[in-house]
Amino acid sequence: MIYSVLKMTAENHQRSLASISNERSLLFGRPNEQRQKKRKGKKPLKKWTGTFVCLASRNQTTIPIGEEKMVLLRCGLGSHRVTMDLYSSQEEFFNCLEKEFPQLKKSGGFELLRCAQNCRNLKVLECNWKPESIRQYIGQQAKIYLRPIQNDLETSPSTPEPNDDTYSVICEFCDNKMNIRMLRDHLKICSARPNSESDELPDPELSPRHSSTTEPSTSATSQSQTLASITPDLQSTSNDNMTEQPQVVEVLEPISSGETDGEQENTVTGTTNMDDIITSIVSECVSHCTETGIKDPVDILRFFQSKMVYGRDLDIQDESSIIEGETNFILVDRSDILQSAFEDIEAITDLRLTLEVQFLGEIAVDLGGPRKEFFALILREIKEKYFSPLREWSPDYTVIGKIFALSFLQNGPLPKLLSVEQLEELFESSTPRPVIQDLRNGLNALGLLQLVKELPSLVHLFTPGSRPFNLKMITTLFKPVFAPEGSNRQIRQLRIYKKFVKYLKEVAAGRRGNLTLRHILMFATSSEEEPILGFTLQPSLNFVQRESFMPTANTCINRLFLTEPEGNRELPSDKLLSNLFDFAFSNTYYGLS
What we know:
Blueprint: H1 2-28, H2 31-40, E1 47-54, H3 67-74, E2 78-85, H4 90-100, E3 110-115, E4 122-124, H5 131-138, E5 143-148, E6 168-170, E7 177-179, H6 183-189, H7 208-211, H8 219-230, H9 245-252, H10 258-292, H11 297-308, E8 327-332, H12 337-346, E9 354-359, H13 369-386, H14 397-409, H15 420-427, H16 434-443, H17 448-454, H18 471-477, E10 479-480, H19 488-508, H20 517-525, E11 540-544, E12 552-554, E13 559-563, H21 574-586
Parallel strand pairs: 1-5, 8-9, 10-11, 11-13
Antiparallel strand pairs: 1-2, 3-4, 3-5, 6-7, 12-13
């Protein structure tokens, strides 16, 4: 009886609490339940605006700069701000991008990339390709690059807007109403202008050197002015004592002596002819690449090299052949390579000829190897002395630009010594510093400045950074040439080869002091990395029988030699063999024995 009463009392108490709770919910609502309902429903609409840069080439590996940006913008690609639903699906996301960049529909698929930190290299986004994930991965302000996968996108300019040049201004001298675009040209020929005002107006596109001279009367001078409009004036505006203006005035003045006149005319014509030839080759390369759709900078360089460099072949094409032809011969001192090289290269009148290098006191015929080592050594010295940091001014930067151009065109290392900012100043700035102006002068001695301006993708070959080089790459590159399988010679060759591979592993792990795998590649091929145009002859590892176990190499045919033991001769100990390897790969003098 007592239990029944207590049970009824408890049930009545629960009903009372429930009634009170219902009354409170009617007055104040139930926040917890409302939050639960919101969580169970769809995510609220939230917009996100990202910056997307659509690239045209499926092989693009760096961010576009300079003229390349303008090309992309003119054809409807480039940088766009795109607004979309933050929580949209991947299909909705890609459809939104294709709506913003209609050309992507013909790309055969496209991928998303971002710019790597502290460089211009692009890398594929590693997160989920949806707006919400992308924003969390790269942040709110970062740019996302869209690169086609199967097909390059069309880069021809989109249809321009109709030209609506209706604004006119009244000439203050003749009171004629002139279109604003034609006013400057009209002032040059306006007959109503006073004599004191009738001098030719300076053309903003010409340098001060040309705008200050009188109107040229010879065809040679007019040609030089045309070339000057292509090639920026490379004299420092801040160094008046270095200007060439007096020399220009002297050329333009009539010469009284007929003999002197003839000599000077030949000099001017010869210089102009060389400039005309280089300009013609650049124009031919630009036309060919444009008509055939060549966009890869490596393919552009290969074609330009075939047209610009002449004389003896740069490298041996076949081991049994002998290469002959005209060259520019220079003799350089390895211990003072900058001074000796600067003097010889400054004296070269035709830089298009194949360069032949002889190191002072060393026995080697340059059939490709010494020239490549010369470029590697001098670029290293130039980097330390002239680009760490960049000097304010030096008379050497013009010849440095010539060395850059020679190395670029004659299978040397790519001159990747300038920062991204310095490259933009070199190829884009209208008012570069004196040192950059001198570099422009040197580069354009072989037409490189003109070529890069016409085909901006070549800038990628100047960007800083080096390709990785590891143990797998060097063992794949130097494939051993063994004796017939099962022979005694092959067994002996395998013994020394295993020791060599063990040594390579120690070098790769950093256990051989300052030696790296690039030292070994340099020793055998005169190149610290695989040339951008590849090796003419594939590197190989061969075995010879001789007394010394010190490695040797023939850099002209990219061949590395190891000594195989004769008969029952024992190999040196691992320590002695490694020391011999260290000594050889640390020294690259030709004729070392």
